[in-house]
Amino acid sequence: MDLHGSCHCGKTSFDVVSETPAPFMHCYCSICRKCQGGGGYAVNIMGIYETLKLHGEKYMKTYQAIIDKSVPKKDQKLCGNVRYFCGECGSHLFAYSKEWPENVYPYASAIDTPLPEPKPEDIYRLMLNKDSKCNWATTPKIDNKRNFEVYPDCSLEEWHKARNQFIERK
């Protein structure tokens, strides 16, 4: 599926192909929720890195978060994801990690293209442990099959394939 994403002020945008465009995974970790916004979690989808086309790149800035700021500075490590955002309006656009060089992770909130809507019972919530999730963010108690203390039991691709929502690249 061809996706177009942009910032709020319109100075930056991107196009990317995604085989896994349904925004179903809500991440409650402190890095995602603080870098993404005030909702208590962030929603990423996955795109194919080689298809990523940037527009207004001169306005884009990057940020690489510290994984655990509570440890002594000498022991702090950077998160593998580099987050891209608009340096003018601050809108977060996507993340990229050299650990998975074939993928890019657009924030669902930056996507302008209509996305497939997951069923409420199919939403996965991750990083719900006490060290990640803030106390005021509520999570529906549908069942524990979709709520994870750390990482879920399947990948973005596996989730999409199991629900016939994987869109094979042409």
Could you please describe the fold and organization of this structure?
The protein has 170 residues and is mainly β. The protein has one domain (2-162): Beta Complex (Metal Binding Protein, Guanine Nucleotide Exchange Factor, Chain A), CATH 2.170.150.70. Helices cover 8% and strands 25% of the residues. The chain has two helices and eleven strands, in the order βββαββββββββα. It has helices at 30-36, 156-162, and strands at residues 2-6, 13-17, 25-27, 42-43, 47-48, 53-55, 60-63, 81-86, 92-97, 103-106, 124-126. The strands form three sheets. The chain has a five-stranded antiparallel sheet with strand order 5-10-9-8-7, with no helix packed on it. Strands 1-2-6 form a three-stranded antiparallel sheet, with no helix packed on it. A three-stranded mixed sheet has the order 4-3-11. A hairpin with a 5-residue loop joins β9 (92-97) and β10. The N and C termini lie close together (9 Å). The model has no long low-confidence stretch (mean pLDDT 86).
